[in-house]
Amino acid sequence: MEQSPSLAILLLVLGLSQAQMDHSGPAMWTDHLEAVDITERILSANNGSDEMLMEGDLVVPRTRNAMLCMQGGNSCLWNKASSGYVEVPYITEDSRFTPSDRKEIEDAVQSFHSKTCVRFVPRGNQKDYISFESLNGCYSSLGRIGGKQTVSVNSVGCIFLGIIQHETLHALGFQHEQTRSDRDQYVRINWSNIDSDMAYNFDKQNTKNLNTPYDYSSVMHYGKTAFSINGKDTITPIPNPNVSIGQRQGVSTTDILRINRLYSC
């Protein structure tokens, strides 16, 4: 049946509108975000950083070994108040943050409130606190180090829910999943695909695993090609190499369980 000119024009307009919806604006941006895992974003943001980092985003502190947080006591943990909540004072005063950046940080830290006893509270005069800042990358110290503790979430490459949660979990005392003491039962590290100068980033640590299972879906797990020199996988899940690793969204159920166990929620 022959279409009238007016119907043909209407169909053309609808087609153009649909094309714009499919290939521009928020829909395309959301797809792009989901296509890249958190590790890739963090390592890319930290490329060329002048900060001394271990495992890609852990600041090496001057006061203690970065890899020794929960060993020999709980000196690196945040204190539990008489209310039963673990209160972590924080600020987001960096002028480089936009209102939208601050909202994303606020949403990320408050995401812990509903399922754990950790409470991020605006800093008053507390001595120990986290200062979220837009520096040259995405990184954090491991656990509470005392005084002002900087968590860098650069406003250009780090303001995503999962990345902010990842760096915040470092500040709470959590290490990367693939460095835990029993990792060789669950993943194979492909050393031939890693620059020998970067191999230390895959050293196993004497971690406190809190009687929780290895978690491929943890927001603290590297992606399969982290630190790859040839595009091939540096981490292979075993026994099933097709298991997905490398988060794109946020904390897993096991991440939440570990927070609650570590801080006796």
TrEMBL record:
Pfam families: Astacin. Keywords: Disulfide bond, Hydrolase, Metal-binding, Metalloprotease, Protease, Signal, Zinc, Zymogen. Binds 1 zinc ion per subunit. The keyword Hydrolase applies. The active site is at E167. Its cofactor is Zn(2+). Zn(2+) binds at H166, H170, H176. Residues 65-265 form the Peptidase M12A domain. InterPro entries: MetalloPept_cat_dom_sf, Peptidase_M12A, Peptidase_Metallo, ZnMP_hatching_enz. GO terms for biological process: proteolysis. This is Metalloendopeptidase. It comes from Salmo trutta.
